[in-house]
Amino acid sequence: MKLPFIPAGLMLLACQILAVPIDIDPEIEASKRIDELHKQYQHNIFKTISNRTTGCTSKNIQRRKEWSTLSKEDKHAFITAIHCLNTLPARTPLTTAPGARFLYDDFIVTHIHQTPAVHASGLFLPFHRHLVHLFQNTLRTHCAYHAPLPYWDWTKTYADPRNADVFDGSEYSLGGNGVYVPGRNPTRISLPGGLSKDIPPATGGGCVTSGPFAEGRFEVRLGPVGYEPRGPEGGLGYNPRCLTRDLSPEFGYGTRPSAVTELVDGCEDVECFSVGMDAPRGVPGGIHGSGHWQVGLNALDVYASPSDPVFWLHHAHVDRVWALWQGQNLEERTYQVWGTLTAANDPPSEEATLDTPMDFEVLGEPRTIKDTSSTIDGEYCYVYE
Fold it and tell me: Fewer CB within a 10 Å sphere, N or C end of the chain?
C-alpha cells in the first residue's frame, strides 16, 4: 500500500498537536539566543550614543568584526600588520627580558609579568580589554592597520576548531593546525593560583606548516613559562622556535553557545559572570580556558599565550561576550567590580575597586578598572558586529 505524501509543515504541526517529542539541538537554540542578545546589546549601545555630538558618537564608533566576515583585503592587512610588529625593535630592555627582540614581544613580556595578578581575579576582564585595545592601537600607529579589529567567534566552531576559517591554513588565515605527532603524553600546565591541569593530546602537536604563520615564516621567541620544558630566564630568555598548535574538539566544547547564554542570561552581577568566564575548573575548562586549550600548544601557556597570534582574536571575543553581558543593562552593569588583585586570592590581596590601577609596563600608561569599564566612554569607542 502506497502511503500518502505529507508535507513537512503538516507533519510538524501534527507532532505538536499529538505532543510527539521533537529533538531540538540546544546549541542551535542557544546560537539563536546569542543573536537576540547581540541585537539588544547593539540597540542599547546606539541608543545611548544617539544624541552625542562629541566623544564616542554613532559617526565615529569603531566596529569590530568576526574573522570570517572580513574581506580578504582586511584579513591580509591584519596578517601583514602582525608581521610588521615582528620587524620593529622591542621597547622592553634586554635586562628585563633578554628574549624580547621585537615590538610584538613587548606584549608577551607584559602578559608574562602580569599573569599572576590578571587571571582568576578582579582584573581579568578589564586588563585584557585594555591589552587588546593597546594591541589594536599599536597595529594602527606602527603598522598602518586601519581595518576592523577581528574576533574569533568560537561558539560557531565549537564542534571542531579545525573547521574555523581562522585555522584553514590559507594565506587569509592565522595558519593551520600543527603537524600530527602521535604517542604524546598529556601536557601539564601551571595555572595562576597554584592550580595545574593535564591537557590531553589532540589532533596536532607539532609545528604549523601552512598559512602566514607557518614554520619558517613566523618565530616564537619567549616562553614556555606555564609548562615543561620551561624556557631560559624563566621564559624571558631567547628561545626561538616554530609556532605549534594542537586543535582540540574536546576543549572546543567548552566554548559552545549554551556556555555563553548561561553566563549572559544567568548572571546578574559581574562576579558571577567573571567566575563563569574564567574558572579553569569548568566543563571541560571554562570558556576562557577552553578558548586557549582548544588551540594549543603555545596557547596553552597562560603566561606566554600571546605568542600565538590567535590570542588577540580569542580575547577580543571574550571581551565581546563581556560587552554583550554589560549591554543588556548598561546602566547597572557597566561599572560593576568584584574580586581581589591576585589569582584565586593567592597570596591574599586587597579587594579591587574602580580606582584600582593596572600596570601595562612599556605598552602604555596605567589604567584603572573604571577607565576600562565602558566601551563607549573614555578612550574607547567601539561596538561588536
Answer: N
pLDDT at 12: 47
CA dihedral 304, 62, 34, 197 (to 10 degrees): 10
Cell of 10: 503538516
Cα pseudo-dihedral 113, 116, 122, 128, rounded to 10: 40
Q: Report d(CA 213, CA 311) in Å as an integer.
A: 13
Single-letter residue type at 146 = H
DSSP-derived secondary structure letter, 3: P
Taking alpha carbons only, the member of 109, 53, 64 closest to residue 375 is 64
Query: Does residue 194 belong to any structural domain of this protein?
Result: no
DSSP string for residues in 214-278: SBTTB-B-S---SSSSPPTGGGTS---B--BB---HHHHGGG-HHHHHHHHHH-SSHHHHHHHHH
In the prediction, which pLDDT does 133 show?
Answer: 98
Residue 318 lies in a domain: yes
Type of residue numbered 239: N
Domain, as residue range, for 42: 26-176+246-297+309-384
CA distance 254 to 251: 5
Q: How confident is the chain (385 residues) per 10-residue block, as mean pLDDT?
A: 45 51 84 98 98 95 98 98 98 96 98 95 97 98 97 97 97 98 94 84 97 98 96 97 97 95 95 86 74 95 97 98 98 97 93 98 98 97 98
pLDDT of residue 19: 55
| CATH number of the domain encompassing residue 131 | 1.10.1280.10
Domain assignment of residue 228, yes or no: no
Please report the pLDDT score of residue 23 as a whole number.
72
Residue 170: inside a domain, yes or no?
yes
pLDDT in the model for residue 18: 54
If one counts the domains in the chain, the total is: 1
Cα separation, 37 vs 336, in Å, equals 20
